[in-house]
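Quick one, T. Sequence first:
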Amino acid sequence: MRRDRALKLLAECTGNDIWSPEYCRDAGVPEDWLEELAEIYESGFQTDRETIYCEDRIVNQYHGVRDVHLAVRLGESLGIDVMRITAGTQLPCDIVLAIQDAVLEEL
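Structure tokens:
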């Protein structure tokens, strides 16, 4: 993947979203990454954070790629030691932010 495309994709990651396979393809995510990272996710309903929304509607299941997993893959492809910089990080949004910050430091 070209560096500029990887940087653009990483900038879109929040750690809170699930990207559809169609969106991933349109954005330029390599097909082999998509095949490896795409899963079917199920909503949890105890808290809003566990609930999956699609076009402002609650869905029980959604097939896609969690952007935190994509951010990890992008960070690795950009030469970042993702395991080291995220070692003490638990929340997906903090993992993405740590990767984004590490990439910016390398620029």
